[in-house]
Amino acid sequence: MANLKEIRSRISSVSSTMQITGAMKMVSAAKLKKAQDAIIAMKPYAYKLKQLLEQLSSALGNDSIYNERPQVAKNILIVPITSNRGLCGAFNSNIIKKSLELESTVYKNQKVEFYTVGKKGNDVLKKTDKVFRYESHIFDNLNYADAAELASELMELYTSGRFDKVVLVYNSFKNAATQIVIEETFLPIQTVAEEQESSVDYIYEPSKEEIVKELIPRSLKTQVFKALRDSVASEHGARMTAMHKATDNASELRNQLKLTYNKARQAAITGEILEIVGGAEALN
């Protein structure tokens, strides 16, 4: 059995850890509220805009440079969105696992590269020697301007012909305890089914060219901003849940150590009493 000093030291260490995880849980809970309100307010708008974008792309056909090309896609860019910090359970590992799964199964016959957004994803995926570019500062102060800049870069990589397909992989926020890994084709724009397309009649104002130039890029930028906000809300939810579990586990371990300490202390006292009694008997 461990000595009393060692057990006391472990109890103190676990108590300190429990205070840290408890504080981190409270910080994540506060950040989650703000991020959750932001993504819940944005999702209906982003979803409707995406619907409109798909219908417009179907109607525009070959007039849009963002639509699917006739040739087979050879170069694929996967954009895994992870966090810059850890201690958030399986939040990052799920994204990394999904990205590698896409590379090895869905796009195994194509050339795949990664545009890593977030430090944790880059730390793992750079070992594959397939990281095309890396971005982490966007999460320092997430805003629409930075998201639009990232979206513009992805659009340029597609329209220039450098990549034939751009896929976003990120965690979608459902609630604090649940994050859903989403694989979403960013470019080319997915078009609606023919039966849906035929039921929609568009009048273009001012012109198709202006729509391609202004509305479609704006919609794509909003799509990236929504994915980043979704990921941030999911990160805070995952970290809050992970720290809650860690605090509970630390509390349980501390209680077990206290029980072990009390048993060891009782055994030590009993041993001392027996020694005293034995010594007294010897003197008699």
From TrEMBL:
Subunit details: F-type ATPases have 2 components, CF(1) - the catalytic core - and CF(0) - the membrane proton channel. CF(1) has five subunits: alpha(3), beta(3), gamma(1), delta(1), epsilon(1). CF(0) has three main subunits: a, b and c.
Membrane topology: Peripheral membrane protein
NCBIfam families in the record: ATPsyn_F1gamma (TIGR01146)
Swiss-Prot/TrEMBL keywords: ATP synthesis, Cell membrane, CF(1), Hydrogen ion transport, Ion transport, Membrane, Transport
Its job: Produces ATP from ADP in the presence of a proton gradient across the membrane. The gamma chain is believed to be important in regulating ATPase activity and the flow of protons through the CF(0) complex.
Name of the featured protein: ATP synthase gamma chain
GO BP annotations listed: proton motive force-driven plasma membrane ATP synthesis
Entry GO CC: plasma membrane; proton-transporting ATP synthase complex
Family membership: Belongs to the ATPase gamma chain family.
Subcellular location: Cell membrane; Membrane
One GO MF term attached to the UniProt entry: ATP binding
